[in-house]
Amino acid sequence: MILLAFWLAASSAALNDPLAPAFEGKVQCYQPDAARKTCASIGAYEKDADGTIQNTATVLLRPEPRAVMRSRAPVVVKNGAICGVITERDLQAAAFSIDGEPADAANAEALRRAVRPGYAPLLNREVCTAYVPKDQEMTGQVSIDGKRQPALDQRVRWVSPAEGFRVAP
Q: In this structure, which of 102, 111, 120, 137 has its CB flanked by the most CB atoms within 10 Å?
């Protein structure tokens, strides 16, 4: 589930423009704990000069020592969902940190090797997430190559960076 958050952190209840909150400065918090202000992952979005939407995802890989992966990859809005294709190149470009410090080359490669098996079934496949409002949060409903995958659904909440949410256990 955490691996999908790497790619699918985006949306709002507004079906016509699921990224509207992102372009107002908010980010998505996956698996939010409002009391502790923590997220399993955080997704942010911005547009490149050519209009391509880029998703920057920060994902908790393990709590102790706290290992985090940060990646950037293009996504599109398709039928009200946020969609992207995970590639080996995207995985190779990911950056890693351990307890808040950049991982050295050896540790970064070890973390990359550790997450690769989890990505194998997703590589070069279209992963889409549609968002269904539920109270103050949403449920991110995942599809892979057009087929619903309910076991991969997650709770999601738009938050302002000023609220202090962070990726942590």
A: 111
Integer CA distances (angstroms), 122 to 52, 76, 114, 140, 157, in order: 22, 17, 15, 17, 24
Backbone angles phi, psi at 118, to 5 degrees: -70, -30
For residue 89, count CB atoms less than 10 angstroms from its CB and return exposed for 0-12, middle for 13-18, buried for 19 or more: exposed
- How far is residue 52's CA from residue 73's CA, in Å, rounded to a whole number? 10
Separation of CA 16 from chain center: 21
Residue-wise pLDDT for 114-145, tens only, equals 999 988 888 999 999 999 998 889 999 999 99
**Rounded distance, CA 111 to CA 94, Å?**
10
DSSP letters spanning 26-38: -EEEES-BTTTTE
- Residue of 113, 112, 118 whose CA lies nearest to 1: 118
